[in-house]
Design a protein that fits this description.
The chain has a single domain (about 5-160), classed as Rossmann fold. The chain has a 5-stranded parallel beta sheet with strand order 2-1-3-4-5, with helices on both faces. It has helices at about 25, 30-45, 55-65, 85-95, 135-160; strands spanning about 5-10, 50-55, 75, 100-105, 125-130. It contains 5 helices and 5 strands, in the order E-H-H-E-H-E-H-E-E-H. This is 3-dehydroquinate dehydratase.
Protein backbone atom coordinates (compact mmCIF):
# COMPACT_ATOMS: atom_id res chain seq x y z
CA UNK A 1 0.00 0.00 0.00
CA UNK A 2 1.30 3.44 -0.92
CA UNK A 3 1.95 5.91 1.86
CA UNK A 4 -0.54 8.74 2.16
CA UNK A 5 0.47 11.99 0.58
CA UNK A 6 1.12 14.83 3.00
CA UNK A 7 0.67 18.59 2.81
CA UNK A 8 2.58 20.88 5.17
CA UNK A 9 0.81 24.18 5.82
CA UNK A 10 3.21 26.88 7.00
CA UNK A 11 1.89 30.15 8.36
CA UNK A 12 4.17 33.15 8.82
CA UNK A 13 4.18 36.08 11.22
CA UNK A 14 0.94 37.43 12.64
CA UNK A 15 -1.24 34.77 11.00
CA UNK A 16 -1.91 33.53 14.54
CA UNK A 17 -3.64 36.90 15.09
CA UNK A 18 -6.31 36.32 12.42
CA UNK A 19 -9.75 37.24 13.66
CA UNK A 20 -8.33 40.03 15.81
CA UNK A 21 -5.83 41.64 13.46
CA UNK A 22 -7.24 44.22 11.05
CA UNK A 23 -10.50 42.38 10.30
CA UNK A 24 -11.26 44.88 7.53
CA UNK A 25 -8.28 43.47 5.62
CA UNK A 26 -7.98 39.90 6.90
CA UNK A 27 -11.55 39.05 7.91
CA UNK A 28 -12.93 37.61 11.12
CA UNK A 29 -11.93 33.95 10.65
CA UNK A 30 -9.27 32.62 13.02
CA UNK A 31 -6.26 30.60 11.87
CA UNK A 32 -7.57 27.55 13.74
CA UNK A 33 -10.87 27.73 11.83
CA UNK A 34 -9.02 27.89 8.50
CA UNK A 35 -6.94 24.88 9.52
CA UNK A 36 -10.09 23.00 10.54
CA UNK A 37 -11.59 23.53 7.10
CA UNK A 38 -8.35 22.45 5.42
CA UNK A 39 -8.28 19.28 7.54
CA UNK A 40 -11.79 18.38 6.38
CA UNK A 41 -10.69 18.63 2.73
CA UNK A 42 -7.53 16.62 3.46
CA UNK A 43 -9.52 13.87 5.23
CA UNK A 44 -12.03 13.73 2.36
CA UNK A 45 -9.14 13.14 -0.04
CA UNK A 46 -7.13 10.72 2.15
CA UNK A 47 -4.29 13.21 2.51
CA UNK A 48 -2.27 13.83 5.67
CA UNK A 49 -1.97 17.48 6.65
CA UNK A 50 0.16 19.21 9.25
CA UNK A 51 0.05 22.83 10.39
CA UNK A 52 2.85 25.08 11.58
CA UNK A 53 2.91 28.77 12.45
CA UNK A 54 5.81 30.93 13.54
CA UNK A 55 6.64 34.59 13.80
CA UNK A 56 10.34 33.71 13.47
CA UNK A 57 12.03 33.45 10.07
CA UNK A 58 14.56 30.82 11.17
CA UNK A 59 11.84 28.54 12.55
CA UNK A 60 10.01 28.74 9.23
CA UNK A 61 13.22 27.85 7.36
CA UNK A 62 13.78 24.90 9.73
CA UNK A 63 10.21 23.64 9.16
CA UNK A 64 10.61 23.90 5.37
CA UNK A 65 13.83 21.88 5.56
CA UNK A 66 12.07 19.25 7.70
CA UNK A 67 9.60 18.77 4.85
CA UNK A 68 12.29 17.08 2.77
CA UNK A 69 11.36 13.40 2.86
CA UNK A 70 8.36 14.07 5.13
CA UNK A 71 5.90 16.09 3.01
CA UNK A 72 4.80 15.98 -0.60
CA UNK A 73 3.76 19.60 -0.92
CA UNK A 74 3.78 22.89 0.96
CA UNK A 75 1.06 25.51 1.25
CA UNK A 76 2.64 28.64 2.68
CA UNK A 77 1.53 32.07 3.72
CA UNK A 78 4.88 33.67 4.49
CA UNK A 79 3.06 36.90 5.40
CA UNK A 80 5.50 39.83 5.69
CA UNK A 81 8.44 37.52 4.93
CA UNK A 82 7.03 37.20 1.40
CA UNK A 83 8.67 40.48 0.54
CA UNK A 84 11.92 40.21 2.49
CA UNK A 85 13.08 36.63 3.08
CA UNK A 86 15.65 35.24 0.72
CA UNK A 87 16.21 32.53 3.35
CA UNK A 88 12.63 31.23 3.08
CA UNK A 89 12.78 31.46 -0.71
CA UNK A 90 16.04 29.49 -0.78
CA UNK A 91 14.71 26.84 1.63
CA UNK A 92 11.62 26.32 -0.56
CA UNK A 93 13.83 26.02 -3.62
CA UNK A 94 16.16 23.58 -1.88
CA UNK A 95 13.47 21.05 -0.90
CA UNK A 96 12.13 20.86 -4.48
CA UNK A 97 8.53 20.26 -3.44
CA UNK A 98 5.41 21.75 -5.01
CA UNK A 99 4.65 25.03 -3.23
CA UNK A 100 1.50 27.12 -3.31
CA UNK A 101 1.78 30.63 -1.89
CA UNK A 102 -1.37 32.04 -0.24
CA UNK A 103 -2.26 35.56 0.88
CA UNK A 104 -5.59 36.49 2.41
CA UNK A 105 -5.46 40.04 1.07
CA UNK A 106 -4.62 41.04 -2.47
CA UNK A 107 -0.98 42.05 -1.99
CA UNK A 108 -1.00 43.73 -5.41
CA UNK A 109 -3.67 46.24 -4.30
CA UNK A 110 -1.80 47.22 -1.15
CA UNK A 111 1.32 49.22 -0.39
CA UNK A 112 4.04 49.15 -3.05
CA UNK A 113 6.44 47.21 -0.83
CA UNK A 114 3.93 44.32 -0.74
CA UNK A 115 3.75 43.95 -4.53
CA UNK A 116 6.99 41.96 -4.87
CA UNK A 117 7.02 38.33 -3.74
CA UNK A 118 10.35 36.60 -3.35
CA UNK A 119 8.41 33.34 -2.94
CA UNK A 120 6.40 33.39 -6.19
CA UNK A 121 9.32 32.40 -8.47
CA UNK A 122 9.79 29.14 -6.52
CA UNK A 123 6.06 28.38 -6.24
CA UNK A 124 3.75 26.40 -8.49
CA UNK A 125 1.22 29.18 -8.01
CA UNK A 126 0.10 32.12 -5.93
CA UNK A 127 -3.41 32.71 -4.58
CA UNK A 128 -4.11 36.23 -3.34
CA UNK A 129 -7.10 38.30 -2.36
CA UNK A 130 -9.77 35.64 -1.79
CA UNK A 131 -9.71 35.87 1.99
CA UNK A 132 -9.67 32.61 3.93
CA UNK A 133 -11.18 30.74 0.96
CA UNK A 134 -7.74 31.13 -0.66
CA UNK A 135 -6.55 28.26 1.52
CA UNK A 136 -9.34 26.07 0.13
CA UNK A 137 -8.29 27.04 -3.39
CA UNK A 138 -4.71 26.12 -2.46
CA UNK A 139 -5.91 22.71 -1.30
CA UNK A 140 -7.65 22.15 -4.64
CA UNK A 141 -4.50 23.25 -6.45
CA UNK A 142 -2.29 20.92 -4.41
CA UNK A 143 -4.67 17.99 -4.97
CA UNK A 144 -4.42 18.65 -8.71
CA UNK A 145 -0.62 18.72 -8.51
CA UNK A 146 -0.69 15.41 -6.61
CA UNK A 147 -2.87 13.88 -9.36
CA UNK A 148 -0.39 15.03 -12.01
CA UNK A 149 2.52 13.55 -10.02
CA UNK A 150 0.65 10.23 -9.66
CA UNK A 151 -0.05 10.15 -13.41
CA UNK A 152 3.60 10.82 -14.24
CA UNK A 153 4.75 8.08 -11.82
CA UNK A 154 2.28 5.62 -13.31
CA UNK A 155 3.42 6.43 -16.85
CA UNK A 156 7.08 6.02 -15.85
CA UNK A 157 6.34 2.64 -14.23
CA UNK A 158 4.60 1.44 -17.40
CA UNK A 159 7.64 2.39 -19.47
CA UNK A 160 10.00 0.36 -17.27
Amino acid sequence: MDKKLKIMVIQGPNINMLGAREPGIYGAMKMEDIHGQMKIVADQNDIDIEFFQSNLEGEIVDKIQECLGDADGIIINPAAYTHTSIAIRDALSAVSLPVIEVHISNIHRREDFRHKSLIAPVSAGQIVGFGPVGYHLAMIGMLQIFEQVKAIRAANQQQQ
